[in-house]
């Protein structure tokens, strides 16, 4: 009976030890799994620490290849991006309201001085105000036209009634037909300055120049029909012819003038029968 009881006790004890061993083994297996999971989760960080501290080299004398070749996956923040916030501290005594001078002085308290917040936006310098400039006033000048000097012939009647030839020089606009320009200026008559000097024209009023040409020293000048009639008689006819001849022969390439009236050659002018059938030189009127 005692042997059977003893064997039962031994068996019960063995079962307890077996159960205890199984529980212990299960615990260590779970613990190992937890460590393995933690290692796998933090593998990168653990290897980085081992690499930075040189743990294997200090303990075993050499570093394993998996530690040496490990590259950390953590992104290091560049130093340029790390902003260090500066704070300035000032010493300020605590408020002391007592009147007992035997008391200890108030303690000094460090208080940070707040700095204005920094902004990324650059400070733009103040732009200077543009200077106001008044527009320059342009002075208008009349267009200058090239001028040329022309010799014109007018008449002056003296106190005794004599007809005297007066040659003047007048500036007129330059043109490629100077004879025509000179004859037109003659037909306009004397200007104010000439009238004040007592000059006049005996060419019949309303006479128009119809054409002018030069060939072999002879100027052929064609006048309108008004050129036929002169109210001053023979002196008037001689005067009008002399004015045209002296004005035309002032040009170096003209020696005489052939008169035409309405495009036709006429032998005599007016009732006074002044001959104009041939070219007239200056010598005709001396």
Give an overview of the whole structure:
- The model has no long low-confidence stretch (mean pLDDT 77).
- 14% of the residues are buried.
- The longest helix is centred in the first third of the chain and has 40 residues, at 2-41.
- Helix 5 (178-188) packs antiparallel against helix 7 (233-248).
- With 286 residues, the chain is of the alpha+beta class.
- The strands form four sheets. Strands 5, 6, 7, 8 and 11 form a five-stranded mixed beta sheet that branches. Strands 1-2 form a two-stranded antiparallel ribbon. Strands 3-4 form a two-stranded antiparallel ribbon.
- Helices cover 33% and strands 21% of the residues.
- It is built from seven helices and eleven strands.
- Strand 5 (209-215) and strand 6 form a beta hairpin.
- The protein has helices spanning 2-41, 43-53, 55-60, 65-68, 178-188, 192-196, 233-248; strands at residues 88-93, 108-113, 147-157, 163-173, 209-215, 218-223, 256-261, 264-265, 268-269, 274-275, 280-281.
Task: Give the termini distance in whole angstroms.
Answer: 197 Å
| Strand count | 11
Molecular shape? rod-shaped
Main beta-sheet annotation: 5 strands, mixed
Class from secondary-structure proportions: alpha+beta
Beta percentage is: 15-25%
Helical content stands at 25-40%
Helix and strand sequence: HHHHEEEEHHEEHEEEEE
Descriptors:
286 residues, alpha+beta, 5-stranded mixed β-sheet, 7 helices
Summarize the structure.
With 286 residues, this protein is of the alpha+beta class. The chain is 33% helix and 21% strand. The chain contains seven helices and eleven strands.
